[in-house]
Amino acid sequence: xxxxAVVMKKIANIEFDHVPLLLAPMEGVTDPxxxxxxxxxxxxxxxxxxxxxxxxxxxxxxxVRKLGFVEGERxxxxxxxxxxxxxxxxxxxxxxxxxxxxxxINFGCPVKKVASKGAGSGxxxxxxKMVAITEAVVKAVKKPVTVKTxxxxxxxxxxxxxxxxxxQDVGIQALTIHGRLRTTKWGxxxxxxxxxxxKNNPRMHIPIxxxxxxVDGPSAKYFLDNFGVDGLxxxxxxxxxxxxxxEIHAFLQNGEIVSAPDVxxxxxxxxxxxxxxLNYKNDEFYAVMxxxxxxxxxxxxxxxFKQFKMRLMEVKTIEEVFAILDEVALYYKG
Length: 334
Hints:
Layout: H1 3-8, E1 21-23, H2 32-40, E2 46-47, E3 51-52, H3 53-57, H4 61-65, E4 76-81, H5 85-96, E5 102-107, H6 112-115, H7 127-140, E6 145-150, H8 160-169, E7 175-178, H9 193-200, E8 208-211, H10 217-227, E9 231-234, H11 244-254, H12 263-281, H13 284-298, H14 306-312, H15 318-333
Parallel strand pairs: 1-9, 2-4, 3-4, 4-5, 5-6, 6-7, 7-8, 8-9
């Protein structure tokens, strides 16, 4: 059994006999249909889109809907965000009623409309408040509480080593660290140095999960070998690429380079994703519109795919989408 499997017993008794790969919670992306695809290809833990604590306590339909999941998605985590203790406590209790395996607190979102209100990574400007909210949530629920955050607010406040200790001391059971600051500009590489410092801090005993720039098997192995983290969380690299979980597992286990999925597998997964999206949204037009952001990614690198993408961006029914995808399969089979 791996070292990580032993440590991971502390999170709702979730055990792994391999390095676990976690699908990062992403607004507008990690809805149930996308989570199902990622689970099929080896995501070990998946999360809801992040959910506003204020939305939950107001019983807002959109926020409550994000709590739903099916048994096949377990281990499943609900991620909440907010900037005040009482709403966060109430939201955590609300989420617990849906019986997730984990309740995760988002202290990492850099989006301006979130951070400017002191939520997400904005709370990195007020570490005592960050710790107080965490402690209150931990005490309020029976489910294990975890946190996802960043290295700090800006280059003058890279405080993650101290933050990690303080969050551990109030009872979180795992910490995911994104290797960027709140102020890191788009496109800048993640800095894993401080993630390694947190992991190698002798005071730390909870699992540390690294996040940022994990894009394939070799990059995953590099971060594991050089920084010793207990697991990896993958975000943007999953867009149109749920196969990344299969690829990384194979590379970590035996150094195998898994071939890229052929056109038949891509078409099959695209159809399955869309069908699942229709079942979830119960609105054909909306399901087809939502899938538009995936087409270019599912077939990224396919020469001359633009002609098909343009048509997929115009049609409005699943029947039309499936017909075009069948054409795609025939075209690239040669």
